[in-house]
Design a protein that fits this description.
By secondary structure, this protein is α/β, with parallel strands linked by helices. The strands form 2 sheets. A 5-stranded parallel beta sheet has the order 2-3-1-4-7, with helices on both faces. The model has no long low-confidence stretch (mean pLDDT 88).
Length: 217
């Protein structure tokens, strides 16, 4: 069983790299942000609370995040392991996580802030079907419209310049100290997130002594 945490600032590719790791290693991708976004899109009570927080560029409170993570992991549908993406984001969450679960490795995707801004401010989302786009590398066929359902694309509430700056500040103030906590157990592996998606995935696998990555096609 393999249990990983993947960390990095917005735009570093956590979701993409997590999905590639999970695809052929039979791991479960637990993306905390996706859980919250699903609730926002489906207008749940949790979603309304998350929408207010994200629109202000703030992070969701510790109690709520920990409860969501605990409920998800308690399903025990991860027979071969998991990759947790988007958690923990501060010292308290890290301590909760280390007390509750044994982690094999923390994958830390490193990305300069100017590249973070370039990537994040180019992201678009279809509010109807949830399809993600990036105007740098994954543009829709018809500008501003979803290829799947034709709905108008929008910028995520947490992808505005103001919200991004708030999240960058929060990352440096709260999330980086998490790496120090995990580092005491010598499980943190720093990976350069600037190369191509395939190159980053291969670097992760080589670092963790995992089976080689074989790109599709």
């Amino acid at each position: 069983m393999r249990k990983f945490v993947i960390m990095g600032v917005q735009g570093s590719g956590k979701g993409t790299q997590s999905e590639l790791l999970c695809a052929d290693l039979d791991l479960v991708h637990i993306a905390v942000g996706d859980i919250f976004r699903w609730n926002v899109q489906n207008h749940t009570k949790l979603g309304a609370q998350v929408r207010r927080t994200m629109s202000a560029g703030d992070l969701v409170g510790d109690d709520l995040v920990e409860a969501v993570v605990r409920e998800r992991l308690d399903r025990h549908d991860w027979n071969y392991g998991f990759v947790v993406d988007g958690f923990p984001r501060n010292g308290r969450q890290a301590e909760f996580f280390m007390e509750s679960y044994d982690i094999d490795a923390v994958i830390h995707l490193e990305l300069p802030e100017d590249e973070v801004r370039r990537r994040v401010l180019s992201r678009r989302l279809c509010p109807n079907c949830g399809m993600d786009y990036n105007l740098i590398a994954d543009r829709p066929e018809v500008e501003g419209r979803c290829d799947i359902c034709g709905h108008e694309l929008v910028t995520r509430a947490d992808d505005t310049p103001e919200a991004l700056e708030a999240r960058l500040r929060d990352y440096h103030e709260k999330t980086k100290p998490v790496l120090d906590l995990f580092g005491r157990k010598e499980v943190v592996h720093n990976i350069d997130a600037r190369p191509t998606v395939d190159e980053v995935q291969q670097a992760i696998r080589e670092t963790l002594s995992l089976p080689p990555y074989k790109p599709a096609g």
